[in-house]
Amino acid sequence: MSKAAASEVDRTLALDIVRVTEAAAVAAAEWRGRGDEVAADIAAATAMYRALAAMPIEATVVVGEGEADETPLLYIGETVGAGGKGPRVDLAVDAVEGLTLCAKALPNALSVLVLAEHGTLLKVPPIYMDKIAIGPSFPEGLVDLDASPADNLAALAGAKGVPVREVTVCILDRPRHAKLIEQVKAAGASLRLIADGDIAGVIHVTEPIETGIDMYMGIGGAPEGVLAAAALACIGGQMQGRLVAVNDQQRARARAASFFDLSRKYAIPDMIRGDLSFAATGITDGSLLKGVHFTKEAIATHTVVMRASTHTVRWMNTEHPAIGKFD
Hints:
By secondary structure, the chain is α+β, with helices and mostly antiparallel strands. It folds into 2 domains: 3-121 and 276-321, 2-Layer Sandwich (Fructose-1,6-Bisphosphatase, Chain A, domain 1); 128-271, D-Maltodextrin-Binding Protein, domain 2, CATH 3.40.190.90. Helix content is 33%, strand content 27%. The radius of gyration is 19 Å and the shape is globular.
């Protein structure tokens, strides 16, 4: 895409992508705290699909809700948008980032969308990714997936000019991370264990004063890794990811997507190779975003929208009429 075309995409579609995540977040929030992850996901994906269908774009979902045989909407490879003379773009979507968080009304459930130049997002299969991330303003290569947790923590603490005990690491609370958690404890750092939502977990490292999180470590979804890398491409920070296949099915998915070397590390420039816009709307109240709030008169949403090429970050508080068509 030319610079002129990229500028046109940003100018005409900035509010449209916000409307997409707002619509999905509101739909998911209707199911917030009801204990039904499937219903929340379907509602949000349907709302996101409908909002995308109205946009003047020809878009391919490259990071989506799953493969074509797993989900009826927003599957990898699906084409969405109104088409016509609109630009050709790629999408990375997560209608509900943190399904368990939404179902249990816990903090930091989000609806997330990335709109990128065609052919610029890493098309990862729906398997796992080992990740490490820190915020901006540190020397490049300060931390590394191949280094031990103790060495990475010491490097970050040294760069911050603080003892390791003043560094906090965010990790998904999963049995697979038992050894990692013990290593972080042994190194003397603090832990912030989260039940779900590793996109938000990664983004938290960019604002450690606000969130209290300095580093993200551990294995989560590979699609979520690309979405998190897109956010860091907009607001700064470092991240490395490595694909992880835990069974024969995932290994087959990796091969089908032409990922034959699972030892390879991917930095942000390997996952994000062009300009993009990133939008996230809160479903539940969290450290980054307020959740959807309903009153008799209005529906309130809180969204962040960012762009990689300009490092522009906009925070949007919006009130929508409670009665009538959501817009």
